[in-house]
Amino acid sequence: MALLPPISTREIAEGLYGATRLARGDASGIQFFGDTPEAFWKSFWAAVLSAPAYALLVLFQLADAEIRSGPLRVILIESVGYVVAWVAFPLAMHYLAEFIDRREHYIRFIAAANWASVLQFALQLFVAAFLALDILPPGLARFLQYATYGAIILYEWWIARVGLQLGRGGAVGIVILDFVISLVLSGIVGAML
Length: 193
Known about the structure:
single chain; mainly alpha; 7 helices; globular
């Protein structure tokens, strides 16, 4: 039995197209994400598509870090951390969606968030590669990094707002939850390296 259900090129294109529409601020982009269990599981193909970008981002980060672990251990820890990160937020949201009475929006929201991650990883990789050229003054480079993070946070906020049909404050809470989960996992992975 396969871990993920098979997905067609058309379904991938629809997921990425919906994510792009949401990135442009078009709330109707949410209609490109299904609300069935199959759509939920298929959206995790976004993790597979994002894995190469994530691996390159890790290489960029490790280039400037002092690592005590060998390459095999780094690959293992980063791989497990990557998988856990893809599972932790949807799991936490399963319970939170129930608590905030948004259970009927949960699947579509997670599908949108998953497909949006592909665009987020692509943007982060583009910026990291550009910054690796070392052609910007340090202050401008930092500004570009912060602007990228800001754009990603705003994008996640918009997806929470549209996908879960929340007000501004409720969507902020979802973004904070995602940030805290990411921060904790990043700390654990960093400590293990």
